[in-house]
Write a structure and sequence with these properties.
The protein is an all-alpha fold. It is built from 10 helices and no strands. Helix content is 86%, strand content 0%.
């Protein structure tokens, strides 16, 4: 009898504690809304957004304080509606992903491996990067010969080295794919990692030459036709963000070839950012403005330093790992 009562007390205590912990984790939650209510919320948010834009246009046309306060109310409602709609939109996307997209991905062997195997994904996505680097190298080389421009010649050399590095890593990974995980294989991979670091340092010479041309030459303007510059800007910012995230993830894997690919992508993204800035300042600034030279100089030197530090870090890290492995064999 005593054991039974004790068991009930323990069960009661556990249940109470569990409920408190669960309520603490959940905290405040937004209420569930049906499909019709969510659609109404989205339409209302769009309408409030349109009213807020209209109020901005006609705000200077009236000095009536009633309308001024009304405009502030519209702004507040539009901001609140945008926040709430964003919350439910994210919830809906997560639910659709969990219930529909994820099972479909897991059902297909290729997409399942692509989603779950980060190493396989890194090498597969390196193929488009190799193609892009080769296209950029050929384009800059042809323009350099046609226009006799050292500006395009430096970028030809830069993207050519990027292509060589990417191809070398992919070739080495394919060649050693069937090998067992031995210290000899690991040493070879760390040597490739170190050699790519050396190439990054060499590439920095070409990059420094491009920066010098940006600073002292007026014939380095790079232009994009029409609205193409906005597409290039979007792709460049996406590439920079993904390069930083992938570099951090690759560092956690501790796999030299994966880290090498991510370092190459990191250097590629930095140079694309510099090239985009030069093009945007050329397109949207007044010719001869002093701040153009200052901004290009600061960004160019910053990119050179970051690429140089990445290359030196790869050399030092590669030498350290190779030495540790050789010491373990002795």
């Amino acid at each position: 009898m005593g054991k039974k009562n004790k068991g009930r007390e323990d069960e009661k205590c556990y249940t109470s504690k569990d409920l408190k912990e669960e309520s603490r984790k959940k905290g405040f939650r937004m209420p569930e809304l049906g499909l019709s209510k969510r659609i109404f919320l989205y339409i209302l948010t769009i309408a409030l957004g349109g009213l807020s834009l209209m109020s901005v246009l006609i705000k200077d046309m009236t000095n009536n304080p009633v309308f001024q306060y009304l405009f502030y109310v519209i702004y507040a409602l539009a901001a609140g509606g945008l926040g709430i709609s964003g919350y439910y939109l994210v919830i809906n996307i997560r639910r659709i992903t969990r219930e529909n997209v994820k099972p479909a991905i897991e059902a297909n062997p290729f997409t399942n491996r692509l989603a779950s195997d980060s190493i396989y994904r890194a090498f597969l996505f390196a193929l488009p990067g190799l193609g892009t680097s080769m296209v950029y190298a050929v384009f800059n080389g042809v323009v350099a010969i046609y226009s006799r421009s050292f500006w395009y010649l430096t970028f030809f050399a830069y993207y050519l080295l990027l292509s060589i590095m990417r191809y070398g890593v992919l070739w080495l990974n394919r060649q050693m794919g069937g090998f067992k995980e031995t210290k000899e294989k690991q040493i070879r991979e760390w040597k490739a990692y170190k050699n790519c670091g050396i190439l990054l340092v060499v590439m920095n010479i070409a990059l420094t030459g491009a920066v010098v041309l940006i600073i002292y030459s007026r014939n380095t303007q790079k232009r994009y036709a029409g609205f193409l510059i906005y597409a290039v800007a979007f792709y460049t910012f996406y590439k920079v963000i993904m390069a930083v995230l992938n570099t951090v993830k690759a560092g956690k894997t501790k796999l030299p070839l994966v880290m090498t690919l991510r370092s190459i992508g990191y250097a590629d993204a930095l140079v694309s950012l510099l090239s985009l800035q030069v093009a945007m300042l050329t397109a949207f600034s007044e010719p001869g403005a002093e701040y153009i030279s200052v901004m290009n100089t600061c960004t160019g030197l910053g990119v050179c330093i970051m690429v140089l530090l990445a290359g030196v870090g790869m050399i030092v890290n590669g030498i350290r790992h190779i030495r540790l492995m050789k010491i373990e064999d002795e």
